[in-house]
Amino acid sequence: xxxxxxxxxxxxxxxxxxxxxxxxxxxxxxxxxxxxxxxxxxxxxxxxxxxxxxxxxxxxxxxxxxxxxxxxxxxxxxxxxxxxxxxxxxxxxxxxxxxxxxxxxxxxxxxxxxxxxxxxxxxxxxxxxxxxxxxxxxxxxxxxxxxxxxxxxxxxxxxxxxxxxxxxxxxxxxxxxxxxxxxxxxxxxxxxxxxxxxxxxxxxxxxxxxxxxxxxxxxxxxxxxxxxxxxxxxxxxxxxxxxxxxxxxxxxxxxxxxxxxxxxxxxxxxxxxxxxxxxxxxxxxxxxxxxxxxxxxxxxxxxxxxxxxxxxxxxxxxxxxxxxxxxxxxxxxxxxxxxxxxxxxxxxxxxxxxxxxxxxxxxxxxxxxxxxxxxxxxxxxxxxxxxxxxxxxxxxxxxxxxxxxxxxxxxxxxxxxxxxxxxxxxxxxxxxxxxxxxxxxxxxxxxxxxxxxxxxxxxxxxxxxxxxxxxxxxxxxxxxxxxxxxxxxxxxxxxxxxxxxxxxxxxxxxxxxxxxxxxxxxxxxxxxxxxxxxxxxxxxxxxxxxxxxxxxxxxxxxxx
Length: 560
What we know:
Elements: H1 11-32, E1 34-35, H2 43-52, H3 67-74, E2 86-90, E3 112-114, E4 119-123, H4 128-152, H5 162-171, H6 179-193, H7 197-207, H8 215-232, E5 238-241, H9 243-248, H10 253-268, E6 276-280, H11 285-295, H12 305-312, H13 318-330, E7 333-336, E8 346-350, E9 375-379, H14 386-394, E10 406-417, E11 425-433, E12 439-441, E13 458-465, H15 474-482, E14 487-491, H16 494-507, E15 516-525, H17 544-558
Parallel strand pairs: 2-4, 2-5, 6-9, 6-10, 10-15, 11-13, 13-14
Antiparallel strand pairs: 1-5, 3-4, 7-8, 8-9, 10-14, 11-12, 11-15
Helix pairs in contact: 1-2, 1-15, 3-7, 4-8, 5-6, 10-14, 11-12, 11-13, 11-17, 14-16
């Protein structure tokens, strides 16, 4: 009789299963229409997140409260979310026409509305990835809130710790706290958070807002307060999905409105039949790469182009940015602010109107005929699965019979890196979808060799398109890097872009089957290194050089 072998799963396999379980669970909860995150219906989601233990959420599976992860999440959720027991995910349902003031999270472009003291509505117009992002972040803060509850509740009665009462006293104080009062409150709070006074002090000011300098204490208080009420009064938090959102999701409603607006403008400007180059990037790098050096040569004397770009990236230099935008507008740039709900702004550059002799591309020899001169369509970053919706709609024929003359699609994005550090550059040769094995090899017009000699490390290989950057852990990423997948980095849009491009060019024949594609990413973080995850903070000026180097290489190819 053959001996039965008991196979134990590796942490990478467990993590992969946890990601898949979260994905399926979130789809199920969405179809169900509502659930209670800390009740039975939210149990699978909580357990999967705790099993996964994503790097971004740090010590979520430990007893002590995670501070950096909390900061990362709070910056991506609307101000006041910690006070709300009812959270309603909606489509664009007309709240912008009401008295409700939109609340936009600092690090996410989505409109949220505080309906009353207990309810927050969050508009979802960027597809399923937006829902995954919101639900995982909410699950994290709810788990953290119950850690606080466990540390302050002395028994099953209403008895709470003295430290909690001291925090409550400080938060409910009508006037601003003095330095002494603040430090006393921090000292008490550190006890039940399981963190040192120094650790809390280090992040305290980062949580602060101009209106509420003591916001950190308020967040901790409300998280603990609502968790206490869930246990003592059985008053559970509830997340609901509006019927309109459930009806609209997946039907490209916002993407279609967005794409038709662009095509209508191209038709109005008589650019519809010109060679089109679509670039997914931010709203400044293409404009600055073309015009900034010449426009600012007097104001920023003796500064090299990278130093000019660094000056433009500083918050206080809005006047310099305005000068560059004015020149660009005078020479054929049209800015289309988003009105569709996709939150993706667009710039259209008519290169026939650009005086190239006064730009960084003075050597460019433009075609003699205006009809052959390229048009650049620069679209702001999409979010996850939204990349498929927007590009798929943009590449469709206008009015069903006017095919666009798309010559290239270029994607300049930021991604997590597995082989280097922040600010490094990645040149992908294929994208694979996490969890499915769906893969999209392509011929990238950008190569490693083109980026060598600029004092920035460059890596080439496969990129993995993930469900959410906040759901990754070291074990899973190490497997993707060390195995024959040979993954060099992770991001959220690549496979979705390529899926749309391939279907339009190879199957539906709505654009040139030989359309050129360019992908390049700069590293915003390294999730395999402790202290280098997204929760450790932004790039600062580290990201300026790779951003502009990639943009300039894309433009050089378009203008060659």
